[in-house]
Specification:
The complex is a heterodimer of chains A (125) and B (610). Chain A is an all-alpha fold and 125 residues long. Chain A has one domain. Chain A has five helices and no strands. Chain A is elongated, with a radius of gyration of 16 Å. The two termini of chain A are 14 Å apart. Chain B is α+β, with helices and mostly antiparallel strands. Among the domains of chain B are: 137 residues, no CATH class; 196 residues, no CATH class. In chain B, the strands form four sheets. In chain B, strands 1, 2, 3, 4, 5, 6, 7, 8, 9 and 10 form a ten-stranded antiparallel β-sheet that branches. In chain B, a hairpin with a 4-residue loop joins strand 5 and strand 6. In chain B, helix 19 runs parallel beside helix 21. Chain B is globular and about 115 Å long. The termini of chain B are far apart. The chains are: A mainly alpha (125), B alpha+beta (610). Chains A and B meet through loops of A and helix 2 and helix 5 of B.
Amino acid sequence: MNDNARGTHVRFGWTLLTIAVLAGALLESLLGWRSSLLGDDELRHRLWSLAHFHAAFLALLNLIYPSAPKSTKTSRSLIAGSVLLPLGFFLGGLAHPEGDPGLGIWLAPLGAAFLAWTGVRRAIE
Amino acid sequence: MTRSHARIAALAAIPLLALAWLATSVVRIRRELSVPVSLHDVAYAGSRSCIGCHPVHYRTWHATFHRTMTQEATEGAVLGDFDNATLDYEGVRSRFLRDADGTYAIETIGTDGAPQHFAIARTVGSRRVQQYLTKTGDHYVRLPLAWNVDEKRWFHLNAGFLDPDGTPFHQHSALWDANCIFCHNVKANPSFDRDTRRFDSKVAELGVACEACHGPGARHVEANGSPLRRYLLHYGGRRDPTILSPLELPKERQVQLCGHCHGQRLPNPRTRIAEFMKSGDPYTAGDDLGRYTTPIDINTKIPGIDASLRFWKDGTPRLTAYEYQGLRMSADYQKGSLTCISCHTAHGGDPRGMIAPAMRGSAACVRCHEAIGRNIGAHTRHAPNGSGSDCYACHMPKIVYGLLDVHPTHRIQRPDPSRAWRHEMPEACTLCHTNRTAGWAARSMSSRFGTPLPVLPNGTEFNVAENVRQLLSGDVVQRSVAVMALGGDSSYDDNANDRLWAVPLLLITMDDNYASVRHFAYRALRALIARADPSVVAGALSLPRFDPQAPPEARREVIAAWDAWWRALDKHRIAHPGDAVPLDAAFQPRRDLIEPLRAKQNDRMIAIGE
């Protein structure tokens, strides 16, 4: 992996981690203030928690990713998965019909596919 | 083809195959959605299967008293005091206790008069009254002792079912499997075998649950396991034929859905009762109720029962569980689009009355009657913010008796004071203007609204304030309605102290020969005292509590204590209600006017049929 790609992952990782931490703080605040935005909607609460958790986890993965050897080929799929998976959870909870996430949730399995592809490639490389 | 080409082709095939699967699935599901489903052929799934996809609807229904209409007698379901509480009624001491194994039990006399121990198996109701079922062999029996939820006390059902004193102890011990089962559960089937005379009762779910209104849901649950189908329904604007949405029914079917339980009916034809008992209630949500049953009305003939007494003489129902009949008689339903769910909802309303928040009070009416809402005072000729401008007070007055309460009628009508003498029924004007005669109401209405003055009634009895006249000379439902009006929220008089003039009349009514009327009289008395200035009613709070089902001597002792308090009370801050109320200047009852009216009291037996 060249310095450019390494730099991209590190910048992306820190950016995503910042977003995840801020989103986590926002979630805690909404809970703390018993906001109706979360309190009345269990599914939104669950989906946004998933978005927060996945964003934080994937941010850390991006930060450690450049330290692994031969990581060039899967770099873009990791970034795509890291964007799509938490974004899918977030949009799925933003506006949704009763009992199901909103249409944005379909980005989550797409993101998961990118991450699975990354994992498979890393395993066999 | 090189290796890289092959890899690209393989990679491209995956999304293409996925797209092909998606397209064929969409076509298949859309085809499915266009095929009607006969819900009669579908199994019931139970309300728990709804939670996953409809958590909000489940939660809001779960908060209703529909859910708790029938329950197994578990810790969370039983509301009554079973901690060795006792109730004395008609010389019988009943005891409410828990057995060593925790089972709830009632010790009272059996139908043979001998003491008996009844283990409680199920409960019925949870809002005003909770009744208890015991299992005897193959069937459940409703016991005649019940728990008054609001007042937290035991009472005998003879006080809840308009029965005079002296009614047999077990008059209301009823067979659940042949009666209550049909309306208080989902898809009831008594499975009665005429040869062996045995029941094998089954219900799809105890209480009134999701499938009572939405139809059997097993196919709906199965079909919507597919997320693709769900998203097509969410975003495709299609309706799901595997389930019923009451909102999509035509108005007649909508009201039938509620009328299935809130409109007493008889099998159509009557001989069909055998089918109901053997195979269960054939009605499924969305059906034409008229295929199976006919609503009871004033002209219905039932052997051994005068069903006409369940109605005012103009045909308006005077008992609860006839809301369906009342609504169908209303112009707003007949000529308009009003249905039950215009105001009521099983999802999100106040559980007491299940009225949608946006539909509480007059808001429900002015949504359609917008012009009236813009200038309500011009319509009502009363102060816009007073009880005289409350739509319900005039168009849905409280003239309907239901277990331990008086409810608004669901026959929405214009007020007409002449109904008092034409149909011998309570009328909106004098339910608030309790100190006025029906003639005064007719003249006021005529002068205020410019309507023709009807021929006024003859007879000195109509010189008495109409509400008081019905309180003293009416039948048990008239007396119940009148006494509740004296203590009710709607009144011509904003001054709570002035309303105390009713106290001596309430004390007379507390000696009625119906426990239900006595109960209402004491309730009205407490309501008046609670509203009045404490300095005006000083000493009232220390007076003994009145038990409407206590022995006559005990009751009269309490009434005497209250009477003595009233006589001694300084009444200079209470305005006299006027000449139409038979009270002298010292606020004492004028027996010369009252006794002739009481002699006219009509004690015809009204079979409620619950």
